[in-house]
Structure prediction request, 385 residues.
Amino acid sequence: MRATSSMPTLTGTQLINYPPHAAFVTPSSIPSLPRTTPGLPKPPGALWPPLDFTLGALACCGACVFTNPLEVVKTRLQLQGELRARGSYQRHYRGVLQALWVVGRTDGLRGLQKGLSAGLLYQGLMNGVRLGFYSYCEASDLTDAPGGRLVAGALAGALGAFIASPAYLTRHCSGAQCVGLIVLPSEGACEGRGRSSAGRIKLILFPLQVKTHLQAQTVAAIAVGHQHNHQGVSSAFATIYRREGVIGLWRGVNGAVPRVMVGSAAQLATFSSAKQWVAHVQWFSPDSWLIPLTAAMVSGVAVAITMTPFDVISTRLYNQPVDELRRGRLYDGFLDCLVKVCRTEGMLGLYKGMGPVFVRLAPHTVLSMLLWDVMRQKALQRRTA
Prediction:
């Protein structure tokens, strides 16, 4: 027996005129699907740009207060044994904890916060611009394109580093005894005392160098790197401006911008991606602060690994002395510093201070990213309330 079909046989004309809703599914009959995947956080909204700048600055300044002692130790470790083969120099600092003890015992507790005022100025300027610009890119959906987060993070870092370069210079002068300050020998400068025969300090300071100079600055017994002997942040800026003008405040920026670009791209891209993934797997409630905390911890590891070589080169460039023509005595620039460090100290020379870099950057990234995200979400909730 042949099975009879329950549907009538239709001719071609009848099929054309057959009502579509009776037997066929049309695109208009399919219910629309949500554009966002369940479990993923909603794209952040846009805040008033000055408020976004302020929140980023406050978050990173708060983190800076807690991590500045590790920044001092990191600067000293990176300057130790500069352009000298391993084992051919005296090691004053042998690790993070030992270096913290030596600096605290020799320079006092205030010595562990050298360069803090310049550090706060630098963190506020650089991260306010950096995080504010990245937030704008996110709100404008510029980070949705392939590689958009990396590109936006790198551009944000370059912009922030360039604007805040003078402050970074000042900060380093405090921790390393003015890592970027230069005493011109032709003017009778006495290295170690930092004063010329006329009784005035003749120094050349630059934006990011001031911070390095101050953090490297210490007593002769535990001094490493060139000692610039700045009296403070304001005097460092004044000296730089008097000797070099406005352009002098950006000396060494060629080493700072690549460093911050790489670090910013790694930090912001991994933080955004990790935060989205943690929210998607639903380990925590959607509004839990543990989501940005976990993402910040992942980001801290990525930042420490990618930034350490650039951090070493930046510290060396900012701390080197200059000649009468205001040229560096040790390095001609970023690439020259990279080649010389690898040639004389080996590849491991680029990872000097990796321990304190990680110990400093990981907590700094966690604190700054967590504070920034929480404050920003609170501001967005208050705006929509």
Observations:
- The chain is about 60% helix and 0% strand.
